[in-house]
Write a structure and sequence with these properties.
41% strand, 123 residues, 4-stranded antiparallel sheet, Immunoglobulin-like, 2 domains, alpha+beta
Length: 123
């Protein structure tokens, strides 16, 4: 059997849904983990010979301040097939998205200053 691949992942109204594809026809067992904890409630439905839909209602106690990363893997395996993250509350100081937004704002300021300087020299 080939390695399972997470091909689609959505999160809507607290319900995560993902599509796993792999060859072999026999449905492997999957699990979703948060840290070392395997989350209960994962359902698995065949949608084709080599595809399965996984559905997991996100438990309320898993939603908290900061970044929570959920890992999808074959049951008992340590290798991740895929993952999804929830970000809630105040952004962390080291959050990469915040750093990128700050860099973009600084680049915009530099572009404006450069254009003003260039326009003044043209006159």
């Amino acid at each position: 059997m080939s390695v399972p691949v997470l091909t689609r992942s959505t999160l809507n109204s607290g319900l995560w849904e993902g599509v796993i594809e792999c060859c072999g026809g026999k449905a492997p067992a999957f699990e979703v983990c948060l840290g070392q904890r395997v989350l209960p409630g994962l359902s698995q439905t065949a949608i084709g010979h080599d595809s399965w839909t996984l559905t997991l209602p996100i438990p309320g106690e898993c939603i908290s301040e900061g970044v929570q990363t959920f890992v999808i893997r074959e049951a008992g395996a340590r290798v991740a097939i895929g993952h999804f993250s929830l970000i809630a509350g105040a952004p962390a100081d080291g959050d990469l998205r915040g750093e990128v937004a700050l860099l973009r704002a600084e680049i915009d300021m530099l572009k404006q200053a450069f254009r003003r300087q260039f326009e003044q020299r043209q006159v």
